[in-house]
Design goal:
The protein is mostly helical. It is 78% helix and 0% strand. The chain has 15 helices and no strands.
């Protein structure tokens, strides 16, 4: 298999288009979800007598369930069809999803909005293996680490900006509806600029959703070394889910701080993850040197341990101390995921690459659901939310350092074959 040879500028243009397509998708979906939750929380939007907590729970299920159930099938589809064409088809379908969302916003129909949210979640699930599957062929293995860094950073920032926009526009549903449709159309337009690559899709095997899940371990045996980066990436999502759930409780325990402190901490976390991902763009292919893993361990673990000292502080002092600790932890966790996703992309043969990405995404979805169960069970296992948050930070340091040291040095598949 060979990548297209139209020149560096063509590759960069295609990558920029993929980057924009991904960011627009992340922004739009999170704006829709934030707008829906803001309407339910502050404007009383409901149906069938559901409480706000029920609406929040349903929205979480609709976002995470497709990720777990459909990711492996999405990988098979992306391995057996031209990926640039598939991305365009997904984005064309997204326009329909946001037309449904617009109808739900204009009629203030919660069931319609939840249905639209499910459609956007399915589209995001399908897009994941396709975009990460095409990236090595689109950009070339020598630039893949840098490309993944930009993909991770831009996606993280797009999610944050989408959440902010959706919350701010809850009083302007017409604007939110128009924004969703407009960005979906723009996302389809940017997908048209992703140039097809000279790929050889795997033959369609008539797979089914059940068969895809039954073949997980067979697929993993075909790709030695893949299990470690998958576990490392799954822990990243466990920590993210724990942080999202636990943050509000921790902030409520700090006396005399502004009411918008929680939003500030979420922004700090997001920016930290994005900066960590961008820092990883300077890594080279292969396992990290030991000194880098030790530095990473210190950057993540020491601030996590410091949080227990920061929490008793009141007012601005406590908030600043907590913010600095969280910022450092976020930089570290954003850093270590980039080489792991790069390893997954290069360890598999091109015709199995998207399926491996799909398995990883399914494992990540399962990890997020496991984090939710863990939060519910904190009391029964004798942990406070503060202790759970610190423990998660320490484990992240260990998992990240271990993953950086032990993840194999992948070569492009063509080099392996040679």
């Amino acid at each position: 298999m060979a990548i297209h040879t139209d020149g560096t500028s063509a590759r960069r243009g295609s990558f920029a288009a993929l980057l924009a397509t991904q960011a627009l998708s992340a922004f739009s979906q999170n704006a829709l979800r934030a707008g829906l939750l803001a309407l339910a929380t502050f404007k009383g939007l409901s149906a069938f007598g559901w409480s706000v907590e029920t609406v929040i729970g349903l929205s979480t299920i609709l976002v995470t369930l497709p990720y777990f159930v459909l990711s492996i099938a999405a990988g098979r589809i992306a391995d057996t069809r031209p990926r640039a064409q598939l991305i365009r088809q997904i984005k064309a379908g997204d326009i329909v999803s946001y037309l449904v969302a617009a109808y739900g916003l204009l009629t203030m129909s919660l069931p319609v909005l939840l249905g639209a949210l499910l459609l956007t979640s399915i589209a995001s699930t399908l897009l994941g293996p396709a975009k990460f599957g095409i990236l090595p062929d689109l950009i070339g293995p020598e630039r893949l680490m840098r490309a993944n860094a930009w993909m991770s950073a831009s996606n993280t920032l797009a999610i944050l900006l989408g959440l902010i926009a959706g919350s701010l526009l809850m009083d302007a549903p017409l604007v939110l509806a128009a924004l969703g449709i407009g960005l979906a159309a723009l996302g389809f337009a940017t997908s048209l600029a992703i140039r097809p690559v000279a790929e050889a899709p795997a033959p369609a095997d008539g797979g089914s959703l059940l068969a895809d899940h039954l073949e997980i371990f067979t697929r993993l045996r075909q790709t030695p070394g893949a299990i470690l980066p998958i576990l490392g990436l799954s822990w990243f999502w466990i920590q993210g889910a724990l942080n999202t759930t636990i943050f509000p409780v921790i902030v409520s325990h700090i006396a005399d701080i502004p009411t918008d402190s929680l939003t500030l901490l979420f922004i700090i976390t997001t920016v930290g993850v994005a900066l960590g991902a961008l820092a990883a763009r300077r890594l080279r292919l292969g396992a990290a040197p030991r000194w880098l893993a030790l530095v990473f361990l210190a950057i993540v673990t020491l601030p996590a341990l410091d949080i227990l000292s920061a929490l008793p502080l009141a007012g601005t002092a406590g908030l600043v101390r907590l913010g600095v600790d969280v910022f450092l932890i976020s930089i570290g966790t954003g850093f270590y995921v980039v080489p792991l996703i790069t390893a997954l992309q290069l360890l598999a043969a091109p015709t199995r690459r998207a399926r491996l990405i799909g398995i990883n995404h399914a494992a990540n979805g399962l990890a997020m659901m496991a984090a939710g169960v863990l939060v519910v069970q904190l009391g029964s296992i004798g942990l406070s939310v503060e202790q759970a948050f610190v423990a998660a930070g320490v484990v992240s340091g260990v998992v990240g350092a271990w993953s950086l040291l032990r993840t194999p040095a992948p070569l492009p598949h063509s080099a392996q074959a040679a």
